[in-house]
Amino acid sequence: MSHRLCHRAGGLMAVAGTPGHGPLAGVRVVELAGIGPGPFAGMLLADLGADVVRVDRPGGPGLGVAPEYDITNRNKRSVVVDLKSEDGPARVLDLVERADILIEGYRPGVAERLGIGPEACHARTPRLVYGRMTGWGQDGPLAPRAGHDIAYIALTGTLGMIGDPDAPPTVPVNLLGDYAGGALYLVVGVLAALHHARATGAGQVVDAAIVDGTAHLTSMIYGMLAAGGWQDRRGANLLDGGCPFYGTYETADGRAMAVGALEPQFYAEFVKLLGLDEQLPAREDIARWGELRQAIAARFRTRTRDEWTRLFDGSDACVAPVLSLREAPAHPHLAARGTFTDHEGITQPAPAPRFSVTPTSVRGGPARPGAATADVARDWDVPRLLQDDVPRPLQDGD
Hints:
single chain; 398 residues; alpha/beta; 3-stranded antiparallel β-sheet; 13 strands; elongated
């Protein structure tokens, strides 16, 4: 039997002994350590059941949190390899030979200079899916430049849509670029390429650029813009805070409620429960949206967030309290669904999405750098991982 997968009864069956549960059980992934979207993509693959081996560097990555709290390394195993040592690239290539997917987040050309670029890897494993996570992509004028989430989403027009029209754009945390436009597109890409590799035996390179993914997320907005249903300015549209019945409002205790009463029937219930159904201008009258907003805002300031939450509870008014990170796990709906879980003393989001036949779980806490070297060497049959590193002279570009 192959060390990877075998075909049985018309489907794929995970080989005995493969760590993990979930629909990707039996899939092997090499993750070259980095920060941000690469590790998150690796976590998602691991949450889905893949055997993800993270190749950490001596000393760890920059900007990383303490290993025991780095949730993006849960459900993985870690080995430490010095890619600048004489034997470092060979160790990674030994892992690659037994892998289905590799993901890396270096600047273009760095993996090639280290001896573990697509050409070297495909020479060992032609069926390998080689996933590349960058901000600017593998080509284009900005490809070799440094950058972070905020710059990537700025160039795509996405950042410019967010925030008060009378102030600079609001920074939306790094969820929009790094994770939505970056990591999720990398995962979709490598899984699509894995499907192709399983069917044809041919691997390929997946160029997942945050600018591409974030731009792709705006597809609906570009359609609305072309149709004349979206103004190319901030705070003037249905979904960007310009609409008074799609936004947030401060409450008497300085907290906030979120309102999304877009459809007429939901809006009718909203204003009725708000106690203003006979005092408001017509919602279709965009010229009076400012007046409508002021009336709604004044009403919300008369009660606390929790009082409004109880009043709207059980309704279809599409109103919800704005919760903090520490409050969210205790919300009755999220608690009932198990949206958050506790593992090794850390409250964290549970794996998503959910599967009826191959359920997922948090099987292990954050991988400690190098802690699984012996186990991976045995399970993946890579004895070279257990040898001592031999330093090699630095080369240009290392």
